[in-house]
């Protein structure tokens, strides 16, 4: 039953009920029912109809209104995501492409000089930033599945996309079926996972990588594990590990636990909520 039909039913049922009662009362019950008794029975009948039929219709109306508001909110969120994706593509992405072209030109001009290595580092950084931006655009344009547990499925698909773009050979085990994360929490969590996988790809020299996720709405854990060379010393103090410090700060700001365990052949980054 549509929203409009429910409203008309709520308006018409009391009117029809009173009309039928008055007709039956005057046509068939006048010899048996006094005028005063009939007048008292009219509000009682309307009340009983309201309690039985109208209360159910009101619940249906509230459900329909909630569904409509949720649909509008989802549409607004998708429009905002699409607008942000367009702005990223038209602004930052194109600027990065132009910067990469200029960096390539500078690299050819300075080939064989003392600045050749610096130019290569700049080209590498521009390429990585461009990859981040393109991944963000793809995630913003991703439309969640309308099937059961769409939020869990959407997050899983986005993590799978990050894995395929960074460490395609990684083994992914997803046992997280009920998710209740805000948009900001999902963005921060995806950024942490991406940074962990990029560190594995750039520094770990690993032959085996595993992404493991499990938990429920309020109690979950995500672990990125590899069998690489590990980290020497405290990774949070290394000069070339800005990403790890930023990842830890992201997790702490969201109220999540963060743990990094590293030794040769077994390095693990664990982010969780309600778990250690």
TrEMBL record:
Q: Where is the Histidine kinase/HSP90-like ATPase domain?
A: 187-268
Q: Name one GO molecular function term.
A: phosphorelay sensor kinase activity
What EC identifiers does the entry list? 2.7.13.3
Enzyme class name? transferase
- Gene3D superfamilies from the UniProt entry: 1.20.5.1930, Histidine kinase-like ATPase, C-terminal domain (3.30.565.10)
Q: Which reaction does it catalyse?
A: ATP + protein L-histidine = ADP + protein N-phospho-L-histidine
One GO cellular component term, please give it. membrane
Q: Which SUPFAM superfamilies match?
A: ATPase domain of HSP90 chaperone/DNA topoisomerase II/histidine kinase (SSF55874)
In terms of superkingdom, the source organism counts as Bacteria
Indicate the transmembrane segments per the record. 7-24, 40-58
Q: Name one Pfam family in it.
A: HATPase_c
Q: Which UniProt keywords apply?
A: ATP-binding, Kinase, Membrane, Nucleotide-binding, Phosphoprotein, Transferase, Transmembrane, Transmembrane helix, Two-component regulatory system
The reply to whether Nucleotide-binding figures as a keyword in the UniProt entry is: yes
Per UniProt, residues of the Signal transduction histidine kinase subgroup 3 dimerisation and phosphoacceptor domain are 81-141
Q: This chain belongs to which protein, by name?
A: histidine kinase
